[in-house]
Amino acid sequence: MKHNTTTGLSDCTILYTTTDGKKINIDKDAFGVKIVTHSYRKEGIIKFSKPITKIPAYTFSQCTTLLTVTIPESVKSFYTSSFYNCSSIQEYNHSFASDDKRCIIVNGVLKLFASGNISEYEMPNNIVKIGKGVFRCSKLKKVIISEGVQIVDDCAFQFCKNLSEVIIPNGVSEIGQSAFSNCTKLKSIAIPNSITKIGDWAFVGCKSLLEFNSPLATSDKRCLVINGELVAFASAEITDYTFPSEIISYQKTVFDYNTKLKGLKKVLDQRIHNARAIVTLSPKPTRENEAKSVIIAITKNGYIKKTPREEFPLQEIGNVGIYKKHYKDEIKILKETTLWDSLLLFTKKGLCYKIEVSDIPTTTIQEKGLSLYDKYGITKDTFSDILPTRNLLNSDKAEKYYVLILTKDGRISKQKLSEYKQMKNGIRTILLDSDKKDIVMSVSLAKNKDYIFSCSSNGYGKSFELEDIRSYTLKSKGIGTYCVPPARHANSLIGMDTTEINGCGYNYNSTGRLKRDFKNLSGASYLLVTERGFINRTFTCLDGNFKPGSKLIELSEEDKVISNLFVLDTDSILVVTAKGETIRLDVEKIKLAKLGTKGTLCLKLSDDDRIAACCKISPLQNVNISIDKEKVKEYKQQTQESQLILSDIFDEEPNEEINISNDNNITIKEMLSLLFTKEQWDKDELETICKSKGLMLGSILEEINDYSYSVVDDVVLEDEGDTISVIMDYKDELL
Question: 228-235 long-range contacts, Cβ below 8 Å, gap at least 24?
């Protein structure tokens, strides 16, 4: 049964049909609204306890039998991921749907596409922008992009492995990041001369691509060049190639994911260097945002990615965490760093690679990121740790710092950071005992007079001064420093600055350096995190009476220590499980425990889950925003005076302020003035603000979006799960 209209459909109801006539499994909490009934008789009927205004992200994703869906008119927000990989869907029924029911178009942006049962498609004419990932993984063979489209957004046609023909009209100005990546059957594509920007990896992985038919292409049609910069390369069937002389720089990601192009890249590098040309790489972050923290993750399958730490909201200890859907690749390593940093990546076999944080793709935690195995040609090896260099690598201060490498068998190598300055990717950093199958476990950055603490996976530890370890050069074997029962190996290492030693307790001074007494500790602590989710937070493991080989934590037979962290009370920690549960906790809310105790359960794990990785996160800089009531009153007076003047001119009555229903009688525009101060808000932060004003967050978001829709025919706030995004383009119209 198909619906051609939503007329008369309740705002509390969604209708759908499936290819097999069976009910689809929907998470009962997916909508944030209680599902009253969900049945299937000839069609599926989902009834909610109150009207719904959006289809949340990933709600129907992977529902491969979904055929049609009828969405109530109360829904104004749509996400591409809501129907991700619904490969059979043929119709969307909603007033935002196109005439053929294949597209959902909101204010000129193509948000959703029903790809089922067709191999060719010509887009409607009222599209200005093709949204992110709209056609991703579809089985289309041919696509005609309509006149009027200006932007093809990120990942729009990514992984369309049957796509062999695309017609892009003149007028398109921008092709986003990974827009056509991994379209493996695409042999030729026409690019109009209206294009001014092509994003990173736009055509990477198009292994059949032979030519670009474009005024922007070189004479052999192999290279796409904008202002002398190579932005895309058709590399199919090429074994040797001489780049045209008009290329004076290149987009760094053009050569990614294809080891066969490494030799060509070197030739181009040499030619550009000889010509003293400036190679235009991916843009670096500006000084204004260099201190912005990101979470770097490396997965089990060797992908690296950076994610804004704001994606992980604070929670209470003992919660179930936040589940990241479609999380298939287990995260093994986590580190916090800044956008301006350089990272050293260490493998278990002792090889080291360098990468700039700015060159790592920004993704959500669900997405793959950049394949390090492809980038560096790594085989039969895996990564063991990330070392942020704190921008020291290329500075004079590098001489004062040391890289400490700890192995499975408890050997440690101390090497000067300056030795890594001019490193080439894949340098060997330490000689390992192959007979004992020794591997690198963790790496730390420290300097002389630092206090070092190492821990084994079965909970035994040893402390020592960095000065007590002799320095070694690269490729040395190191020295055995670990004294623990041989049952399990050493697995973590931290270094703590003890430059200023006095008797005033264990605190941080204004320079951030550690003052050490070990008998009266405050403001900092030591965390052991275990695989089964227990955290032992203690001060006493750093006490002067601590003995090498002391037992730090009581473990069950199936548990082991996976991480060793030194933290301030103002820090938080991020924990990720093998199945993708994430939780961020304030350190000061974690209960203190004595040595040899079990610790606190930080996360409720399912029986078949375990902690895979964790890291420390430095304090967030909270933005305190307050409304100046006197200013608001003054602006209201000015607004009323302006309205009176305009009403005399245009013979119109001044508009009344729309009030939010609460005791404080706050206006929607006052709240909008607050919200427009930044583009993205943490939901917890907004909840706190609303409570202080006697408001319910859910209600205020609905009222503001209703008002926005009446003025600009669109919502101004988008609920992204843990955050609320503000569409800044509507600021002038709504205020």
Answer: 229/280, 230/254, 230/268, 231/198, 231/202, 232/198, 232/202, 232/203, 233/203, 233/261, 234/203, 234/206, 234/209, 234/210, 235/207, 235/209, 235/260, 235/261
| Lookup: tokens for 308 | 């804004």
What number is the average pLDDT over the span 15-29?
Answer: 91
- Give the predicted TM-score (pTM) of the model: 0.47
**Secondary structure of 597-642 in the HEC alphabet?**
CCCEECCCCCCCCCEEEEEEECCCCCCCCCCCHHHHHHHHHHHHHH
With tokens 């049962």, the residue in question is 117
Amino acid at 225: V
Report pLDDT for 703: 75
Tokens of 545: 């009476």
| Residues facing 338 on adjacent strands | 293
Separation CA 399–CA 52 (nearest Å): 60
Q: Tokens 């289809």, residue?
A: 55
Beta carbons of 532 and 558 less than 8 angstroms apart: yes
Q: Which residue shows structure tokens 């005609």?
A: 144
Q: How many CB atoms lie within 10 A of CB 72?
A: 19
Q: Which residue has the higher pLDDT, 499 or 225?
A: 225
- At residue 62, the pLDDT reads 85
Query: At residue 647, does pLDDT exceed 60?
Result: no
Place of tokens 């710092």: 401
**Pair of tokens at residue 208:** 């059949």
Tell me the one-letter amino acid at 98: S
Q: CA-CA distance, 495 to 454, in Å (whole number)?
A: 9
Give residue 707's identity as a one-letter amino acid code.
Y
Bridge partner residues of 387 (DSSP): 344
Q: How far apart are CA 666 and CA 680, in angstroms?
A: 22
d(CA 717, CA 422): 48
Mind giving me the DSSP string for 151-194? EE-TTTTTT-TT--EEE--TT--EE-TTTTTT-TT--EEE--TT
- Residue 701 amino acid letter: L
> Helices 683-692 and 697-712, interaxial angle, to 10°?
100
Pairing of strands 401-407, 411-416: antiparallel
Higher-pLDDT residue of 77, 142: 142
Query: What is the C-alpha to C-alpha distance for residues 345 and 342, in angstroms, rounded to an integer?
Result: 10
